[in-house]
């Protein structure tokens, strides 16, 4: 079920069993081994015929492998161990971890390590994971300075050569990906056009961070990352190539449900009852997780406000009260209390420092916990359409017999429907597994980051207080 | 200027130059060396005469030593060092420090070590400091169980023999001390009859702690601690002795301004201008310190409420959100995330524990900071009358010349007034120095305690978080 896109117009010569096609048109390849530079193809109207090989581009195949469950769970403790060990879930050690956290590159390619599993269909992950860094936002202008914009530098690990993109380019990419892959792959929304942050600099930083997060998630996806449009975005050589590529991508007709024809599950058809059960479980899961994520975001927001508002103000007041008392003590006229007053002042200053530390802490830890959950809130939302589309297809297949009896569809149609739906099921399950695997990796990472920063926070304060304590004389 | 209290009625034999006196009357001793078992004394009406030595009890002298400033400040670094080192300010190393803090015994006897000072008059501190422990509150009842009360065990370090006292006994002691010493020594109020604390147990604990604090402060005072009534309270042997002692103390006529006749400054008269300056400085100081203390109490109260209210609730919510997410993850049906879900659950529980720690922390540190400041608020308030009484006496002395010219007082009266006022000045300055020295000790102690507990608090949380972190797999 490979598809091909027509590169150039071709007009059939009558009587030669040829097919007239137009540039951009999507064909289903029926027989690629006709020979003599010809392939047999079918257009969207169902007409079949020969088309010259050079006039079309056969779409890449996205292979889904089914990882069969092998071995006994209870036979071997090691099995469990390997499984429980999320170490094998994450990217390789070389994955660049952005110092600012959150927007860290990560490419899933670990499923091949996991041959002893029954998770079901998984995407075929690339050998070397794609990754990119979004950095160095620069102000540009056009129309003789009348219009200004921000350009971000995007550097993929494959070429290490930066390309520049404006937000609207990311938005263009998002639209293309949604159009082309949206039926099979939930495409998370781009970061909001309006991000909170009163200052332009803060706004740009936040947007960059979120674009980085979005790009990493796209890089991690084995279907997205290998797509022509995504590669164009990351690796175009010059303005001309970019514009040509853009035009081509916009004309791409292999979009929407047609994407399923580019997916090749290396396995027999799935058990439809099991598929439905899995999908239902997943729907329930995403609903619960959505609730959990929203709950955490809610709590986090309240905590953020407290940590940046009233709490540091209180520490500041405590600090001021100590220093104030120290000043009063200094006016006593009583000799020999400089040790006390100095220490009391130092303690007061320490609490003012603590106020600062407390106020700045959420940016260091809670921020990434929030961003990750925010991202997942979006991801969970984007799954909805994909799951619904799949469900509609399943329902249609269920009605196929009735429709065939009513003469509305042919037996061939029914078989085609069944096959396509099966691919959709494979694809959705590969997506579900992709999601879970990423989720485990992401939450493991963000929780560790959060706890590490929290530990650093409490230890820093303890150290500061120790220093303050040392100024007092021992009793 | 020693005084004596009449023990038994004595009727003068006419023509023998004797003086008729009544039990409880206070006399001023004019000549103690008359011989033959007689002393020459003057009663409050100014009448003089001989009184049998056995019929009176010469009051104890409270000596004030003036620590003269010796040595050059800049000559010798060691001088400064000894001075700045509050180590020499506090009680000796044996002072029992109550584990519950706050109500810790402390006796000032360090001034003797401080001979190289110009702080001015200081009380003569006893060789071994008095101290006591208030503990073991027990419910008692009388009237066949109709009335119940709480008895506290008070154990002085001098006898190590506990005596029992009810709150009303402490109150009785307070009234006696106020009556007898109030003109010279600011007597801090007893803890409120109504202490906050909803539960009886909590109430009793709090009252005991505050009674302990009050008793310690009284023990520390060289005049109070050696007084007969205070000694009676601490060391009576049986009910009979207690009742007899009580009656005697209640009949004591050496009260109010007469207390100054029992004080013997071992020094020439003070420079009245300097005295006034010192007093004014002190008044300003107490006013400022009162403001500072109230400020700290205010801030502390707000902080207390946050730490016991909204803050732990937030940590609990964070904990619940983590655990909730973990439960959701457990329903994924995806294998190999038990490490993550277990760790996430543990992290959630850790934040619930942190909530508990946060909520209980103020009782461990802020409490004592608050109690000490609360105590000082009372102390500062009790100084007001003492300072005002002194100021009135000074003003009267200033008017003495005018009054003498107007024939309202005699030259002798003027001299007596001057001498008495001088003793008041000595006494007040000794009190001021006593206050400062205690203040340095107390604040040094309570700040250290606060910081130590705060450090323990932050370290405990950091340790708990480390444990939680260790449950996640390293990336």
Automatic annotation (TrEMBL), chains A, B:
Residues 1-61 form the SH3 domain. The keyword Heme does not apply. Residues 75-84 have a biased composition (Acidic residues). Pfam families: BAR_3_WASP_bdg (PF10456), PX (PF00787), SH3_1 (PF00018). Residues 130-240 form the PX domain. It is found in: Cytoplasmic vesicle membrane. Its main location: membrane. GO terms for biological process: cleavage furrow formation; endocytosis; endosomal transport; intracellular protein transport; mitotic cytokinesis; plasma membrane tubulation. SUPFAM superfamilies: PX domain, SH3-domain. InterPro entries: AH/BAR_dom_sf, PX_dom, PX_dom_sf, SH3-like_dom_sf, SH3_domain, SNX9_PX, Sorting_nexin_WASP-bd-dom. One of its GO terms (cellular component) is cytoplasmic vesicle membrane. Keywords: Cytoplasmic vesicle, Membrane, Protein transport, SH3 domain, Transport. Residues 75-112 are annotated as: Disordered. One of its GO terms (molecular function) is phosphatidylinositol binding. The keyword Protein transport applies. Belongs to the sorting nexin family. This is Sorting nexin. It comes from Esox lucius.
């Amino acid at each position: 079920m490979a598809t091909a896109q027509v590169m150039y117009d071709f007009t059939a010569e009558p009587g030669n069993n040829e097919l007239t096609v137009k540039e951009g048109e999507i064909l289903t390849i029926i027989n690629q081994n006709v020979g003599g530079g010809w392939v047999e193809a079918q257009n969207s109207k169902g007409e079949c015929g020969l088309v010259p090989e050079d006039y079309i581009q056969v779409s890449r195949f996205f292979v889904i492998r089914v990882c069969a469950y092998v071995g006994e769970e209870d036979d071997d403790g090691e099995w469990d161990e390997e499984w429980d060990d999320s170490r094998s879930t994450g990217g390789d050690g070389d994955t660049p971890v952005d110092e600012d956290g959150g927007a860290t590159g990560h490419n899933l390619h670990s499923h091949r390590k996991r041959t002893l599993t029954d998770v079901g269909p998984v995407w075929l992950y690339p050998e070397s994971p794609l990754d990119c860094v979004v950095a160095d936002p620069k102000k540009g202008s056009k129309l003789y300075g009348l219009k200004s914009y921000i350009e971000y530098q995007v550097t993929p690990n494959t070429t290490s050569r930066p390309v520049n993109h404006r937000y609207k380019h990311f938005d263009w990419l998002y639209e293309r990906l949604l159009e082309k892959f949206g039926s099979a792959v939930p495409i998370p929304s781009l970061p909001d056009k309006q991000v909170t942050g009163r200052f332009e600099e803060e706004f740009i930083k936040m947007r960059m961070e979120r674009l980085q997060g979005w790009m990493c998630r796209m890089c991690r996806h084995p279907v997205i990352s290998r797509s022509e449009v995504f590669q164009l975005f990351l690796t175009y050589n010059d303005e001309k190539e970019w514009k040509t590529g853009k035009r081509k991508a916009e004309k791409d007709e292999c979009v929407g449900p047609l994407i399923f024809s580019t997916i090749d599950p290396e396995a027999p058809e799935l058990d439809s009852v099991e598929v439905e059960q899995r999908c239902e479980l997943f729907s329930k899961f995403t609903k619960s997780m959505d609730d959990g994520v929203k709950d955490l975001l809610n709590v986090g927001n309240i905590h953020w406000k407290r940590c940046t508002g009233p709490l540091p103000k209180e520490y500041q007041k405590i600090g001021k009260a100590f220093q104030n008392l120290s000043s009063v003590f200094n006016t006593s006229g009583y000799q020999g209390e400089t040790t006390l007053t100095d220490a009391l002042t130092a303690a007061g200053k320490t609490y003012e420092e603590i106020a600062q530390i407390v106020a700045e802490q959420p940016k260091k830890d809670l921020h990434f916990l929030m961003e990750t959950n925010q991202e997942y809130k979006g991801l969970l939302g984007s799954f909805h359409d994909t799951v619904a589309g799949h469900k509609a297809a399943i329902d249609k297949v269920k009605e196929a017999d009735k429709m065939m009896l009513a003469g509305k569809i042919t037996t061939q149609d029914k078989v085609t429907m069944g096959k396509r739906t099966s691919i959709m099921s494979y694809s959705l399950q590969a997506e579900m597994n992709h999601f879970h695997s990423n989720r485990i990796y992401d939450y493991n990472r963000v929780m560790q980051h959060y706890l590490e920063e929290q530990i650093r926070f409490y230890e820093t304060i303890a150290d500061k207080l120790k220093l303050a304590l040392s100024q007092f004389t021992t009793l």
